[in-house]
Amino acid sequence: MIALTITAGTGTISVTDSGTTGYVLESWNPGSVNRDNSYATSRWLDGASLTSSRTEITTLAASIQVWGTALADTLTKVATIGSALGQFSYTVTESHTGGSAVYTCMPADYSIEYNPTTLRSNMAVINAVIPRQP
């Protein structure tokens, strides 16, 4: 089981793959780590020596189903998670069997799928790309 906890100034939101909170984790990718390395080389010697290394900002990708008891409840939950993802600084904690990871995040880019068929079932989907510190 994977669970995400988004902790921002607006409060805490729990996203699980079981859907017990009204937020269902559809897909999750914590992103890859990219490094900017600098090397010193010599035209007389083979290879190089590492002189500095810096880790770039990484992006998390998440797709979250938002379920409510009625359409108004669904739209309120969408607004709540949208507000949390728009905070200047917040944390996302990934919990899974055998461990956890905490990411310090920045304002996310996200889209909300308002499909009439799923809205009648009181469900919307948020696809978020969340920049995080390495």
Sequence-ordered SSE layout with sheet pairings:
Elements: E1 2-8, E2 11-16, E3 23-29, E4 35-41, E5 48-55, E6 58-67, H1 71-85, E7 90-96, E8 99-105, E9 109-113, H2 116-120, E10 123-132
Antiparallel strand pairs: 1-2, 1-7, 3-6, 4-5, 6-10, 7-8, 9-10
Largest sheet: 4 strands, antiparallel
Question: Cα-atom Rg, whole angstroms?
Answer: 19 Å
Low-confidence stretches: none
Question: Given this structure, which CATH class is correct?
Answer: Mainly Beta
Shape-level CATH architecture: Beta Barrel
The strand line-up of the biggest sheet is: 2-1-7-8
Outline of this structure?
The chain has 134 residues and is mainly beta. The protein has helices spanning 71-85, 116-120; strands spanning 2-8, 11-16, 23-29, 35-41, 48-55, 58-67, 90-96, 99-105, 109-113, 123-132.
Descriptive report:
By secondary structure, this protein is mainly β. The chain has a single domain (2-132), classed as Elongation Factor Tu (Ef-tu), domain 3 (Beta Barrel), CATH 2.40.30. The chain has two helices and ten strands; from the N terminus they run ββββββαβββαβ. It has a four-stranded antiparallel sheet with strand order 2-1-7-8, covered by helices on one side. A four-stranded antiparallel sheet has the order 3-6-10-9. It is elongated and about 70 Å long.
